[in-house]
Amino acid sequence: MGHLDPESSLHLVPELRWLRHTIIERALTKGDYILSGGAHSDFYIDKFRLFSDPKVLRRIARLFTPVVADFEPDLIGGTELGGVILATAVSQMTGLPMIVVRKQPKSYGAFANDFVEGPCHRGQRVLLLEDVVTSGHEVLLAKTRLEELGLEVIVYAVVNRGLAPIKSLVQLPLPRGELTPDN
Questions:
Q1: What region, left, alpha or beta, does residue 167 occupy, with left being phi > 0 and alpha being psi -120 to 50 degrees?
Q2: Domain 10-171, what fold?
Q3: 13-22 vs 54-62: helix axis angle to the nearest 10?
Q4: DSSP class of residue 85?
Q5: Full-prediction pTM beyond 0.90?
């Protein structure tokens, strides 16, 4: 599915270059890693090195403006944990309400056993955000849970490692090799 449609986001090219460069310079660590889906990689993206800087987080959130304009969601959704940070920033920027999709339902409180936190109603459109995806298993499971509630869902990530059928702002593929802002 790839990243942003080039025709609708041509004006974002400098910003997407900035994002790719920022990820590689600030959030990428090299080594031998096993990723959440079991794939091996010679680099790891520490999204908290991006999201902990309010200026960087705000700038990343603004990159979702064309996605919000094209999809016209009623809600911004975030997956636990990094997706929640991103969804919070996009919700604040757009004024759209936000929901959280948990990996596991909490076992206490008024809404025990619920995977979704926050009000939502059948028929609403949700832009479900994730930070970094490799296989996409967790975010696609979250999408299914929202669809079971009667919501229409589009999934978008900041980074797709290349194995998931999920749209993203940036592609940083898995194969081992030197990763630079230009490749």
A1: beta
A2: Rossmann fold (3.40.50)
A3: 140
A4: H
A5: no
pLDDT tens digits in sequence order for the chain, 183 residues long = 444 454 455 566 899 999 999 999 999 998 888 887 777 888 899 999 999 999 999 999 999 999 999 999 999 999 998 999 999 999 999 999 999 999 887 777 767 678 999 999 999 999 999 999 988 999 999 999 999 999 999 999 999 987 788 999 998 876 555 555 544
* CB-neighbour burial class of residue 15 (10 A; exposed 0-12, middle 13-18, buried 19+): middle
Ranges of each domain in the chain: 10-171
Q: Which two tokens stand for residue 72?
A: 């016209």
CA distance 33 to 30: 8
